[in-house]
Structure formats: C-alpha cells, structure tokens
Amino acid sequence: MEEKKVSGLNLASIMTLYFVSMAITIVTPAMATFMEHWPDKAEYISYISTLPTLFIVIGTFIAGSIMGKKIKYRTLAIMASIIALIGGIAPAFFDNFELTLVCRAVLGLGAGLLAPLGNALIVGLYKGQKQANLLGYGTLFMNAGGIILQILGGVLAGTGDRGWQLVFWGHALLIVAVVMALFLPEPPAAEVTSQSGKKEPMGKSIYLIALLIFVYNLFAFPIMLNMSTLFVQRNAGGPAVAATALSLYTVAGVVAGFVFGHIFKVAKRFIISIGMALCGLGFLLVFFGETMPVMTAGLMIVGFGFSTFFPAFMAWMGMATPPSTVAMASSLILACMNLGGFVASPYNSLLMKIFGADNFILPMIVIGFVFDFVVAVIFIFASPFKEKK
C-alpha cells in the first residue's frame, strides 16, 4: 500500500493530538489546593486525578471499534475534543465535588476517544523509517504537552483563593485540538477481509504488547507517585524538589522522542531491550541513590528509556497486525496502559500493607527493576525487529 501524501498542516494536526493527550494532568499540581477547598472530601480528592484514567480506558475501546470504520478519524477527533473540552472546563462554573468528578469522567471519556488516533494515523499513513521517526516525535509532543500543561496548572492553582476553580480553565487549550482536528488526514481505506473472504483478526502479538505496557505502568506509576515521599525520607529535598526531578523525567522523554528515529535506525533489533534496560538502570540509581542529583539522574534515565521503548511498541504494532485492525490494536494497547495506571492505586496499597507505610517504596522499586531487566534480556533474543540481510 502506497503512502498517502500528507501536508505539513495535516502532520501538525496529528502532533496536536499527542500534545493534548496529557490534558488530564493539568490538575496534578492542584491536589493540595483541592484538599484545602474540600477538606471534608480529603480521602477522595485523588479521584480528581485518577478517575479520568478509568474512563480513558473506556474511551479508547470505543474509539478502536468505530474510528475509520463507522466514523471518520477527523469527525471522531472533533467530537472527542469537544467532549474533553466541556468536561475539562465545566467544574470552573460550580462548587460541587461530586459534579466535579462527573465532569472529570467526561473529560476522561473524551481523552480516551482521542488517545489512539495519533498512533493509528501515523501507522496508517507512513511506513518504515519515516513512521519510526514520527512515532518518536509523537512521544516528544506528548511529553512536551505534559510539561507545559502541568506548569500551566500549577500557575493557575497558585493564583489565590480561586485557584481551585481557575485550574480547570487550563483545559481551554483543548480549543486548539478542536480547530486542528479540522485538518486531520484520513489514512487509505484498508481491506477488512483476507483473500479467503474472512474478516482479518488482530495480530496475536498485540495482546503481548498490551500486557507488557499494562504491567510496566502498574509497577512504574506508583514509584513516580511516591517519589516526593522518598525524597523526604532520604533528606534529599521536599515535594518541590521531587516535582522538579519528575519534570526532568519528562524532559528526558522529550529528548528521547526527538532522537528515537536515529536510535531505531542504528539499533533497530535491540531497541526494546535498550529502552527497558535504561528504565531498569534508572530505577537502580533511584534505589541506591541517597542524594538529589543521583535520584534525579535515575528518573531522567527512566524517562528516556520509556520514551524509547514505547514508540518501539507502536512500530511493532504496525508490523504485527493487518492495517484494518490498527485502530483497535492501538486502542487496546493504550487502554491497557491507562488501566495499569488505575490499578496501580490498589497495588500501592497492597505493598503498603505488606511492608509498612515507611518501608514499601524500596521493595516497589526492586519489583520495577526486576521486571524491566527481565523484559530487556528476553527481547535481546526474541526481538520483533529483524536485521535486514
């Protein structure tokens, strides 16, 4: 299948999808502000941040079953952006915690409908090295969006007594997504049946990719969540220092996204092993590091590693499944990634009960390191990317 000609504006619209994919994180810096405003809801405040991830899972599955089949990519992107925009901004107009959670669920649904579009479009429109380069750039825009949106959320949350309300206006940036969605290209229509006339099934490797990203996020997300606590325990700095370290984690992801295409070209067969090994090395530095510089360096290596193996997973997806199933495959992978983040909360609570509230973080890091190292070793010998002969 030949590549469809895509303009610069078309490509910019695709990258916008990645940029706004982190919209739910705008409120992350405002958790303390919400606690102050709704002190009687303290034990439920975290749901403002985590509830959308559950609805992202639902949204991604819906998107996978309809995009490019029952509805055009462009139409779905416009609808999803509007849904996310409404759900994101609405809590700024009232002071009700329960209704805020409802709106956060609506935001998550819209974000979930948007989530698989970028990867599906790149895999459907591009091939080979160009596809790899753009998947890397997509990761770059996703991480850059995360940095900018969280900074915006922090600024809005710190504007005074109305900070808890103003932070929701940060979602107004989704207006850009609504406008840019008008310029999204449509990939060539794929045959949905094989030569035998039967509907083409999704490649079996997709379930392995989905499982790997689910387990990775399950183990990695709570480590990031507890990083400020670890910094305080080691007298390496307070929450502000930990937040800076986590921001540098994202910056490292931006750098990885920028150079991913080059790394993929040089070390294609070992790209997944390299990414996973870097994540494991980063967690190892965090485990043994007793100072802020060492722990921050570890987090940056983890960020670089994740943004190396994740676009590699997307490239693997494009190879492993028929074009007609790319949309559903992308949705399944992203749904499992977000599900891993949601299930991370009970996993975090379980480790806390087993090891104690003061001692559970280091065993958590060990588990993450072991998983990353084992996966890295396995993919040295079982890589889906073969060298050209």
Question: Might you state the CATH topology name of the largest domain?
Answer: Growth Hormone, Chain: A
Sheet of most strands: none
Shape: globular
Q: Tell me, rounded to a whole number, the average pLDDT.
A: 87
Strand and helix order: HHHHHHHHHHHHHHHH
CATH superfamily of the largest domain: MFS general substrate transporter like domains
CATH architecture of the largest domain: Up-down Bundle
Low-confidence stretches: 191-197
Helix percentage range: over 70%
Any idea of the CATH class of the largest domain? Mainly Alpha
Oligomer classification: single chain
The assigned structural class equals mainly alpha
Number of helices: 16
The proportion of residues in beta strands is: under 5%
End-to-end span in angstroms?
23 Å
Protein name: MFS transporter
Domain Major facilitator superfamily (MFS) profile: 9-386
Membrane topology: Multi-pass membrane protein
GO molecular function, one term: transmembrane transporter activity
Structure description:
By secondary structure, the chain is mainly alpha-helical. The longest helix is centred in the middle third of the chain and has 30 residues. The chain has 2 domains: 188 residues, Growth Hormone, Chain: A, CATH 1.20.1250.20; 188 residues, Up-down Bundle (Growth Hormone, Chain: A). 72% of the residues lie in helices and 0% in strands. Helix 1 runs antiparallel to helix 6 and helix 3 runs parallel beside helix 5. About 2% of the residues have low confidence. It is globular. It is a multi-pass membrane protein. This is MFS transporter.
